[in-house]
Predict the structure.
Amino acid sequence: MSGVRRLRPYALRCEHRTTPLGIDEPAPRLSWRLASGLRGDDPVAHRVRVAGSAEDLDDDGRLIWDTGRVADRVATAVDYAGPVLAGLTRFHWRVSVWPASSGAPAEADSWFETGFTPADRWHAVWIGQGPCPVDVMDAPTEGEFALDDRGLAPCPLLRRSFTAPAGARGRVHVSARGLYELRLNGERVGDAELAPGWTDYRHRVQYQTYDVTALLREGENVLAATVADGWWSGFVGFEPRRAGAHYGSAPQFLAELRLTGPDGDSTVIATDGSWRTATGTIRHADLLMGECHDLRYAAEGWELPGFDDSGWPSALVTDTDHGLLVAGADEPVRAMAELRPRSVKRHSGGVRVVDFGQNLAGRLRLSIRHLAPGARVVIRHAEVLDDSGRLYTANLRTAAATDVLVGDGREHIVFEPRFTYHGFRYAEISGLDESAEPDVVAVVLHSDTPWAGEFDCSDAGLRQLHECVAWGQRSNFVSVPTDCPQRDERLGWLADAQVFLPTAALNADVAAFFTKWLRDVDDARTPDGGFTNVAPRLVGVADEGAPGWADAGVIIPWHLYRSYDDPRFLARSLDSMCAWVDLVHRHNPDLVWRHRVGPHFSDWLAPGTPTPREVVATAYFAHSARLTAEAAGVLGHRERERRYRRLAEDIRRTFAERFVTSRGPTGGEAGGGTGGEPVVRIAGDTQTGYLLALAFELLPAGQAAGAARRLAGLVESAGPALLTGFLGVALAAPVLDAHGRSDLAHALLLREEVPSWRFPLLHGATTIWERWDGWTPGEGFRAPKMNSFNHYALGSIGEWLYRGVAGLDQAPDSTGYRKLLIRPRPGGLGHASARHESVRGTVAVAWERHGGLISLRVTVPPGATAEVHLPTTDPGSVRESGLVPGPDVPHLTRVRIAPGHVLYHVGSGSYHFTAAHPPAEGRSGTPGAHRPPPSPAPGRRAPGSYEEDTP
Ligand code: BGC
């Protein structure tokens, strides 16, 4: 066994983040993952200790907190429960994990830093530029950039110099009402983009903490900030009566630098009225409209020591309140990748259309050799092209998504907007030198949610689908989970988030991201306790929660608890969950949810017959009541658990009485019962009606099979195809699968006509479209008022690629992957694999069919177990690592033989099963069987598939 790695903790996290700076959770969660190269190498105990320095961790007498040795075989986290943690301090911690096999624990260390606690006083005050911009104004000239008409203002610059001794250390705590970029001595502080992120600024404003020790110098130093409107005072959403300035009218800034000299002296440099302000090159910056830099306004050297700011007016102190400041709970938006152009097409007038080959959220960085004074380079963005190969921007609605650079004659400029982002695959650049090729990259921006999932399989179309889903996630996790990144909307729609979360949480570690957003969801609640449709809430926009949308306030904490094994998701939300269910109950005492339905979006964007609204609403009412009961149960609130369980049961019964009919048992008719099952019909007889009833377990005993049969009949007779909107879509594959029809789930994935996931892929999609038919060869683009090409909602199928196709899942009663459920559904595929970096450690599945055998490799992290459903036609053929599984193969027990598979129970470690299995059938069994996109119909060009024209 030499060389095999034994049990060890890794990936230490505090509050689901790696070495966070400035946390304000008083009882931070300290967690670790486990790995081992051995089977059954499970932990039997752990110990966590916290100290004020790395050295103190070795000295039991100097520990701040010590759990002592805790006998526990499954926990991979503890919530700090020691003395109150001092603010603005670094703490070191160590986890020790004892394996069953030997006495010596394996250990790993990490640290975190606290931010402001109630005992720490902020010195900084909010500053801004005051109501009167200080610029002189020139009369507009012909062709002057029209966005000026939208009331966009130049970005304020704010600076202050100070002196620091040699060897000083520094932390700066920074926030803005708006967006900020801070520099110290000209160097960028941190790498957060669009900071401090979007919250409902009437409820909370996040601050970030940065270590600036390396940027400090002896003598004069300069803090220099640029601030922009962002979500605070810029354009957000689509409400024509309140298109922008939702929370304020002009940006404000707040920063506090805490310096510690070599002798331990501390000094605070904070925003106050002594800061100086002006405007500079950024003439406007807006999330939806874009950004304009005019280099003629450059105040050279303003970010550096030595600059004379005596002519700059003093900043205005706008507010001295710190009550709403909170430490950012998630990792910020960052520049996560750069993409080079895939092709550049020239058009008349020196206009270039650049194709980055991928729909994304971000912006361009353009390097330009020379730009004459007053000459402009204009960059427009679009997701798709029209028939003539030019940008199609009608679907952006009022979002101008245009960035402008005005030259001042200098040589070599690197232009990258700083306070905007766009949803685009194509950029049109005009104003560049005709002869030069643009030196440009697309900078991909999104919240830094560590990637945690991989999926692969033998079908190129499914691989492409997985990629599209992943890019939809990247593009729309930008401080909040948005519906889309391109048009004048980009809102945190709750239903989109709840249907996509199961996929998102497999693709990436979104625990911290959703910790932050659930605060937004809570802040957005209406005074009567209702969840809303969007969070953060926009000022001046009424928002009464709709069924399936508002219910996300219940569904999301529950799913996060299951994914991340962190009951605090439930503890923080339980009161709001109860209030929401009570509210719906109050308005609908007969338990059919008809009243207080907000805009009742129902099964949004369903192409088929609409599902009766009361069916959708009442199903969600029952589901929310039941999850609330479950949550109360987990938290030990027995009375609440009983109450909501009873309510859930009453709603379920009402649903069945009002909406479900059952005849029979009879036989024969399509979708009806065979073999003595009753014919079950749900009001409206739509796919979504059955999906909701089955997924939320609303049917009386004995009716589920009949309902599933009817559902399958409806899906089959439609194509097979789904005629659901995005509430129904999210449930389709899991429900069909749970009722023995994984073949139909596969068939839906193979379908190429509208509606299907493959149709957009065949027409050049690189992200999931909002509508199944956002573009068709016959009709071209659909309704420009609502036609995003980067909407993750229909990407909720991503979950089933992991759980169904690859077979990587956890048991229904498992949290945090304690009990894996490995159950591949090969369909016609030749192989599939998935990997997920769970809170417990790496979970992996890989299966392959070859020569009449199936090979299944499984990795179960230490402390976990797995149920392995091995698909085989011959139980006697099963081998595990070449051996007949029997009593002499440790950590493995055969539980039962069932039709088509054998069920094993295994302990932690890696396993390799082989068994007889019929070879793959069907075209998706062939590697790379996905065909290339067909030629578009005459006169219609597929939007993402403009022919390559590489320079
Ligand atoms: C959004 C959706 C959202 C919906 C509400 C749309 O404009 O893009 O994804 O959930 O409004 O029905």
User: Anything to note?
Assistant: Residues 483-484, 489, 493, 495-496, 601, 604, 786, 791, 793 surround beta-D-glucopyranose (CB under 6 Å). DSSP finds 14 helices and 49 strands in the chain. The chain has five domains: 8-114, 138-285+296-328, 335-447, 479-751, 819-916. The longest strand covers residues 351-370.
